[in-house]
Design brief:
Largest sheet: 4 strands, mixed
Order of helices and strands: HHEHEEEH
Strand content: 25-35%
CATH superfamily: Lipoprotein like domain
Number of strands: 4
Low-confidence stretches: none
CATH architecture: 2-Layer Sandwich
Radius of gyration: 22 Å
Mean pLDDT: 87
CATH topology: Double Stranded RNA Binding Domain
């Protein structure tokens, strides 16, 4: 009896789940829209990392030719010392990366906009090179996280505004 119930459960469960209305956000329907977004160049090293991460996330080629949408991103980066030794030497920093973005069509009409913020941290060590590497790695991770969040925002927008 339990084997028959298990088989019936395995047959009925997919039918119930298919009727719930769940649709994956990323699929073949959104890929062409997301890849048709041109990401404008962003100033500074942080902007370079963010733009490359966005191009990768959107599966775009980074070329403006043939794109239907334009994404303009402005960055604000700041760093704050959060851990001090007795002699006031800073041993840990929090870096904040704030990105404001505007998606528009190629005629300049704004379609959506928003902002994303990411906080990352790094330690200051005795070696200046190691500290610089830690700082750059922290910035890169923050840029990748912000890019993924913008990617999600754009995916939601394209999903709700089927173009």
């Amino acid at each position: 009896m339990t084997r028959i119930a298990a088989i019936a459960f395995c047959v009925v469960l997919p039918l119930i789940l298919s009727a719930c209305g769940f649709h994956p956000m990323y699929g073949s329907a959104l890929a062409p829209a997301l890849s048709s977004v041109y990401v404008e160049p962003i100033a500074e090293r942080d902007g370079y990392e963010l733009r490359n991460s966005l191009i990768d996330a959107l599966q775009s080629d980074g070329d403006k030719a043939g794109k239907r949408y334009n994404l303009k991103v402005t960055l604000n980066a700041s760093s704050q010392g959060i851990a001090l030794q007795n002699d006031a030497t800073i041993t840990r920093y929090n870096s904040r990366l704030e990105a404001h973005y505007v998606l528009s069509d190629m005629q300049g009409q704004v379609l959506t906009s928003g902002s994303q913020t990411e906080l990352s941290a790094y330690n200051v060590v005795n070696s200046p090179y190691a500290t610089l590497t830690a700082q750059q790695d922290s910035t890169k991770r923050a840029a990748q996280d912000v890019a993924e969040r913008i990617h999600l925002d754009l995916g939601v927008w394209f999903r709700t505004h089927k173009q």
